[in-house]
Amino acid sequence: MNLTRRHVIAAGVASASLARPALAASPKEIGWDDLIPPGVPYAEIIGEGDMDEANDTWSPIFDANATKLNEALNGAYVRLPGFIIPLEIGSAGVTDFVLVPYVGACIHTPPPPPNQLIFAQTKTPWPSEELWSPVWVVGTMYTQLQTTEIAETGYALKVDSMEIYEW
User: Fold this and answer.
1) CB neighbours (10 Å) of residue 130?
2) DSSP state for residue 85 in the 8-state scheme
3) Among 17, 40, 59, 159, which lies 20 to 30 A Cα-Cα from 113?
4) What span, in angstroms and rounded, lies between the C-alpha atoms of 33 and 45?
């Protein structure tokens, strides 16, 4: 097939018009309550467990409600505030972390249930000097139970952008 200038221009216009809606998509702003599926009251997520004093960690035991995820968020483009618990940190900053609803979650206290924890990955490292600041995180969310070195998480987030959360 011989490509004419007209074919090349038409293909370029078509591909540009297809890419525009994806770039223009605004994230849906969600809160931590949105991670719990409709009909599952947070008060019924029971977390018991034992303190491992030698390692200074809490080993939680949650009921079945703790791993129930909001499937409406699977594949959703979202914006959510939270705090960073670093998993992978380099000289440029943090790239893999658990996003948690309150400062210090998962460190030396009973962690929130899996449906309140998000395993997040970013290609652009978040500066180490900003680790204790609350952040806004924007990206694509997936329902995905997994175990990290600090807690079981219920969601995964491919981070597109982050910024300091302003009160």
Assistant:
1) 15
2) E
3) 159
4) 13
